[in-house]
Design goal:
Number of domains: 1
Helix content: 40-55%
Number of helices: 2
Strand order of the largest sheet: 1-2-3
Shape: flat
Largest sheet: 3 strands, antiparallel
Distance between the termini: 65 Å
Number of strands: 3
Strand content: 5-15%
Order of helices and strands: HEEEH
């Protein structure tokens, strides 16, 4: 892979489709919210309220929860803003999914690029080896490989036995 900026024509059809969908989502989204929507059901504390005697009639409220730096925060979402917050959170999730798909395509391209480079390196190495073998034979020398350096012996260590006192 090169350091040059990738133009859209060098991308696969799938990558172009993903980039286009992400661009469209970001241009149409009124906002993005990272977090999880949590619906809470509570009793109000009034003994005469229907929530006091029946779990099905608890008061429901929506919160947006998020964990940052190991600390979870929850923000109350007013009733009149619930639809907007739901849409923004859903748009954020769609954008995140598209970014993940684009990233997978990038990993795939990186792997392909590395495989091509490795194959080209092996081909160049064979070509160089064949060339040096031909030069070595012409000069009457053998094209034997250089022997590896001998390994140094490991330093022996002794452990002292441990004694347990009861």
């Amino acid at each position: 892979m090169s350091d040059k900026k990738t133009n859209r024509f060098s991308l696969s059809a799938e990558e172009r489709r993903l980039h286009s969908r992400l661009h469209q989502l970001l241009s149409e989204a009124g906002g993005l919210l990272h977090g999880s929507l949590i619906e809470m059901a509570r009793r109000c504390g009034n003994p005469r309220c229907r929530c006091a005697s029946n779990d099905a009639h608890k008061h429901r409220s929506l919160y947006l929860g998020q964990t940052r730096g190991g600390k979870t925060t929850m923000e109350y979402v007013p009733k009149d803003q619930e639809q907007t917050v739901r849409r923004w959170a859903a748009d954020f999730q769609r954008a995140r999914d598209l970014l993940e798909a684009i990233s997978r395509q990038g990993w795939r391209r990186l792997g392909e690029s590395k495989a091509k480079a490795k194959a080209a390196g092996k081909a160049a190495k064979k070509k160089t080896a064949a060339k040096s073998a031909a030069v070595g034979k012409a000069a009457g020398k053998s094209a034997a490989k250089k022997a590896p350096a001998p390994k140094r012996p490991r330093k022996k260590t002794t452990r002292k036995p441990t004694t347990r006192s009861s």
